[in-house]
Amino acid sequence: MTPVAAPFDVARVREDFPILAREYAPGKPITYLDSGNTSQKPRQVVDAIADHYLQHNANVARAMHLLGAEATEAYENARAKVAGFIGANRPEEVVFVGNASAGLNLAAHTLGAGLGPGDEIVISVMEHHSNIVPWQMLAERTGATLRWFDITDEGRLDLSDESLINERTKIVSVTWVSNVLGTVNPIAGIAERAHAFGATVVVDASQGVPHLPTDVSALGVDLFVFTSHKMLGPTGLGVVWGRYDLLAELPPFLGGGEMIEVVRMTGSTYAAPPARFEAGTPPIVQAVGLGAAVDYLSAIGMPAIAEREHQLVEYALAGLATVPGLRLLGPTTSHNRGGALAFRIDDIHPHDVSQLLDSRGIAIRGGHHCARPLHERLGVQSSSRASVYLYNTEAEIDTLVDALNWTTDFFKGR
Amino acid sequence: MDVNALYQDIILEHYRAKSNSGLREPYQAEVHHVNPSCGDELTLRVNLDGDQVVDVSYLGEGCSISQASTSIMTELVIGHGLAHGLELYEEFKEMMHGQGKVELDEDRFEDAIAFHGVAKFPARVKCALLGWSAFADAAHQATEGQGADR
Ligand SMILES: Cc1ncc(COP(=O)(O)O)c(C=O)c1O
Fold it and tell me: Which of B101, B72, B87, B61 is nearest to B139 (CA)?
């Protein structure tokens, strides 16, 4: 583990998130352990959004006036910041869309345009529905076959089936970090195998970019999709990064304003990327907000954040292991493991767990977390999931563990 | 929020020992209802003889609220007229949507009055209604089937 330059000051970080001091009862602050669902936003991000709306608001790219120029500059600046944050070669490789789901649909539509029967698309059983359903729909439209990686008993991607990726494989789309198991997948290796057969590699990085230092070039993938609201940014914004030469080859997805070059009634030509994929007025202020989020994360440093979360996950794994009847889904060690901590408690339904925790101001998620096939594979119908981010503390983990012990007593003892 | 108001002992007792659980034959209609927000699933069958509910059998996985509610519902409707069961459903539904302001008659609703506290938790109303709405759906399908047979 690389040592962190400055000690991570979680108390300082928490001061930037007023919502973490919200009380659910007088004198009792909430415990937010649902960042895998959506993260909280620091004051800096909210201020940037307010400042943009209050001082610089106009439409972009087409308004020939002071505010229009400022809004356009702010939007394009945000693109450049995001590009820098993920190690893109140039800002034009960054496409802004509505959310990660929109990004994955864009990937499926544009990459899938030429697919037909006999072609294969490979995903995994641990995917979020957003990285399953668009590919199922593509397979249905084109007659291509959908195949998937299984998982091992430990909850890692099962890469033992050498024949899964083969000469028929056209697209491989897998998650970087599982939103349920926390597993960090070996993307670079998968990409290498896929590329050996000429397949295009898509990554759902929704749970990766918020938590790990990101270098898209080093990962060696083709399209890379993530979502602003899980990384301190606002909702309503997703990001698709693509290798520029690939983006330049892809057909448009949605048609409309801004994505065109020349429109005639007999036909149109399309703008170069990224505009080709940004039909209509884009999420301008959302991009400004994400730019501020990226600045915030960068000021602390992603290596420091990853290191801190690693400590917290280790602490949480140890704490959860003490709860009687609790079974963790996914790797039980912090090695290559992100901050999603899904679990089952014997004979207590996740909905009831959430309810009891909520009565103590603790926010976690219960259900299948948009990963029903994964739960089916694990032989469970649903699970509870706590998830951590840079602002969480060991004390909050203790609060969670105490409340889980109380929950088991509540249901067993009566 | 007082969880003791939500999780009445009657509810937990039914959750631990469900009445009429399991799928049985014969039946005229089978339905599968889900609660997509939390993933609760319920398969439910009804066996009618004319306008009498002979049996309601079910297999479900869900939270204590949905499981207990289904269990209590079967106790209330089996062996009675279908019209009576559907009437109870309408009243129970009204109570569940009443945010705690609508009371149920204990003589007719027996253990189901324990759900009065659940009505104050909007997120759990769907759970409490899952079994009831599956019963009503299955009963309608079964009576349509009977109509077609004759
Ligand atoms: C792994 C993963 N992929 C995709 C998504 C979808 O993100 P969004 O809801 O922003 O489209 C999520 C978040 O719910 C996720 O965790």
Answer: B87
